[in-house]
Give the backbone structure.
Amino acid sequence: MAELLYRLGRFSARRAWAVLISWIVILGISVGAFLAFGGTLSSAVTIPGTPTAKVTDQLEESFPSASGGTGAMVFHTKDGDAFTDSQKTAIGELLDETADLKGVDTTVNPFETQETIADQAKQISDGKTQIDDGRTQLTDGQTQLDAGQQQLTDAQTQLSAALAQAQQAAGGTLPAAAQAQFDAQQTAITQQQTALDAQQATITENLAKLDEQSTKLELSSQLLDLSSGIRTVSTDDTTAVANVVFDKRQQEVTPETKQSVIDQVKEDVPSGVEVEFSNELAQSLPQLFGVGEAIGLIIAAITLLVMLGTVIAASLPLVSAIVGVGVGVTASLSLSGVVDMLSITPVLGVMLGLAVGIDYSLFILNRHRKQLLAGVELHESIGLANGTSGNAVVFAGSTVLVALLALNVTGIPFLGLMGTVGAICVAVAILLAVTLTPALLSLLGLRILSRKARGTIGTPRPDAVPTKPMGSLRAVGTLVAGLVVLGVVAIPALDMRLGLPDGSSEAVDSTQYQSYTLIEDKFGAGVNGPLLVVATLPDAATDEEVLEEQVRIGQEIADQDDVKAVAPVGASDDNSVLAFQVIPKEGPNAVSTEQLVRDLRDLSPLSGDVELGVAGSASGNIDVSKQLSDALPLYLALVVGLSLIIMILVFRSILVPLTATLGFMLSLAATFGGITAIFQWGWLGPVFGVHDPGPILSFLPTILIGILFGLAMDYQLFLVSGMREAFAHGAPARLAVQRGLHAGRTVVVAAAIIMISVFGGFIFSHSAMIRSIGFGLAFGVLVDAFVVRMLLIPAVMHLLGKSAWWIPKWLDRILPNVDVEGAALKRSHPHDTGSVATAPSNGEPRNAVDGAETAALGAGVTAGTAAHVAAPSSELTRREAAAAAERTHPAHVLTTDPDPADRQVSRVEPGLDVIVHPATAGVQRVAVGAYVIAVDADNGTAVVEPPVGGVVVVRAPR
């Protein structure tokens, strides 16, 4: 890989204009693809297949007329007085005009709705009065009928008695005339009885109708009582909520359609009335780049300028990153026409593209500048920088790519897409770093250095590397203090709640926030987050049974804690599905509302095998959180597993990758604690624009795990690879820790500051989602880079000592050699440099390199890696001697004790030719074959000037 990148770097340097034009063309193609194929971004967080999604789909199927997206418009008087009749009329006419807009299905007039509710209550009251009056009339009629029946019965009794008496007097048979008279009387009585029976039947029938009407009226009254907490006009008549219904699903309503509604209403709102719009209407797409982001980029630019010293050098990483963001984000947005893309997805791409784009380019640029100052030829230096630092960039970027792409295994489409877009931007940043950066370096030539630095090219520069390891007491103290600090910061994470932002999280001066607070103040917090409950009956109900079932089910729902009101939405065409709107007592992100969702789901099935389903923002929050928590173990196992494999290959150690992962878990816990304290508890709220603390963005922990793990392994790689390099080339394990930290800290600090600046710029975005993501990433990088990687990891590595690099022999044999730093490339591509070796102070032994790596000089090996420093009492390590033995040249030793030095080298590697050069006081130049070594015996330093071959061991004078 290093050799390939070396060739790629040299090719890009030689064909700089071709590479530059190619990337400009690629940028143009990606922008064109976005303009041609880009679609609409969504602000709604949805996951298909969840209980909420299933209920939503069922509603759309059962109630197609009510499946369109909705939005609320809150009208209120400026002076706080009640609406006038003219204002109500004007608002109604405005809503009628709005209903005629393209994409709008209908609007709901709040005043008419409230009047309808009042009319319904009056109708029920009047109906009850009418029924009571009718029942009174029927009762009176029944009394009269009973009296008539009694008279008729008495008449029948008298007639029967008279007939019997007449028959007795006549001796049994009456004369025909008398009998006819009696029959006529009986016929009259029978006719009267028939009339009374008919009247009784009428009364009975009317009573039955009254009972039926009374039952329906009572059921309607109960439903009205259940929904009595729902209003569209406030009780003081100063605020009204009007709804607009679109002809497409909420996710499919275009921003242009929403904006047309807002423009129409704002333009024609009547005098004395103001209007605010809910999140569903006014939530615009977040800015990809705003003032905060610009400030973050300026801080990054200042950091680059301080580190690199020239405007030209500082501009190069910024240019590379901006081009990368342009290519990556527009290419990703071109997919939005065929996939549902969350509105913050491209913003995440901008964050990552800028941060890693600047850092990756900086790593290569920094190596190139050092090589130029050492006198390496321009194109050769570009190639070597690309093959060494560029190789490290590719390996580091691969851990970020693994973490981001692994988000697809969560099974959550919008999260997987966010990871994919982020991975595209990171991949583009890597490609730009190893192609465009070399091309720009070639075009800029030596102007990448300041004028003063150009005048010192080729001049050896002392590199005062550490000569003593960290003290064990200091290591223990650092470890304990770091753990305590991280533990304290992580405590709030124990109280973390997950949710999705609502109108209360918007900016105070935004119309969404004003709408939310007006509704909360005038109608109750629960109106901002109503629940939809769907009841599926086992069998289709008759029209007569629907009302009865609505009351029965509605009452069971209302009996739950924290329910303010329940209103029936309607029944499906076949009466098998009933829908209800449930208003909680508190807002959509309240703990009580989440518990209400669980309670309602636990009710299912109701008596009669009625299945209940719940939808709404609180329901969606629960489902998203559960889906994420279920997917998290697999995601963590995949990310950590793959990254551990990569780190084991790179570091050839078991404990180093494990400590890296444990360190990440500590920084992650602290990050979660910081987020919870600020965004949920409200600590330092005014500083970060948190005016209404609430739950943490539901998918933020998963996003942070993926991104921060990749970035943490970047820092681990750049710091610990230097420690391994020093250890592999002869430094004692604990001293190697100090040397690796010394070698990598400058560039890692700069890279971390740049990332914190870029991510921190998004903290002040208008979008609540972006604010929390920006803070989480910035704080996470701060904790991981400066506390974990630069304090805790070195302390742990020091305490582990040599055991940090332990690896089973069988595993060591089968692992491939992963040359992250491109050591083999440096051996195969020699270049002329100078190097300074500094002797240890106080006569302490030191078998190590002077700042780069210990190796044999000669063909393909740089002089800058060859100067060894050792005290007279120490022995050359076997690694050093083995490296020297690979060459056929003799070993040259400068020492004030020739005999021991000769014996040292011979004892370690018998047969190695040793040439001893005495070192006396003062500065002297010693010729060693083609070498010229300037030795200062007083301060124990030696400068090795450009060599042709041989091995040099620089010994400190006694």
Notes: Residues 110-169 form the longest helix (60 residues).
